[in-house]
Design goal:
This protein starts with a strand and ends in a 6-residue tail after the last strand. By secondary structure, it is of the alpha+beta class. The protein has a single domain, classed as eRF1 domain 2 (Nucleotidyltransferase, domain 5). The strands form two sheets. The protein has a four-stranded mixed β-sheet with strand order 4-3-2-5.
Length: 164
């Protein structure tokens, strides 16, 4: 089975040539990467990043304290994560919404719960409508991670079946 990015795959002529041409086509794609340690939003034309914003909000890590302190730190982490997701939603609105009509699709990477939290913002409903594919795994979003993201979202997945 061959799973191409941004389906459907046009069916005409040489199947292998179609797959290669489809995967290498320069599309205008929005990208949203979210993890607890940071976020990145960008617009790509093909593999070239043409606009981006990256952030690293502080979200406190786990603590070994017990009792009331542990609960207090958990609440604080929750509030910090909520603020970080709100800042990410603001960046998505600022970078992607003005270009929405130009974008063929939006791809997501990082943490599924983080992506869901960010895209739950009412302003981003049009972005959710353009979201395609699974949430791709990424390390903490940094500019270099965002710049390398096309290698993932443009990849063609090939699954081989057992031969009898």
């Amino acid at each position: 089975m061959i799973a191409v990015p941004f389906p459907p795959l046009p069916e005409s002529g040489n199947a292998l040539a179609n797959v290669v041409q489809h995967a290498q086509r320069d599309r205008r794609i929005g990208a949203v990467l979210v993890r607890r340690g940071g976020w990145a939003v960008g617009v790509f034309v093909g593999s070239e990043l043409i606009d981006s914003k990256v952030g690293r909000p502080y979200v406190q890590g786990q603590t070994k304290a017990g009792g009331w302190s542990q609960q207090r730190y958990a609440r604080r982490r929750g509030q910090q994560a909520t603020q970080a997701y709100a800042a990410t939603a603001d960046a998505v609105a600022r970078i992607l919404l003005p270009r929405l009509t130009e974008l063929e699709a939006v791809v997501a990477g990082g943490d599924r719960a983080g992506i869901d939290a960010v895209l739950s913002d009412a302003r981003l409903r049009p972005i959710r409508d353009k979201l395609t594919g699974p949430v791709l795994p990424t390390p903490d979003p940094r500019l270099r991670v965002l710049q390398a993201f096309p290698d993932q979202f443009r990849a063609v997945a090939i699954t081989l079946n057992e031969l009898a």
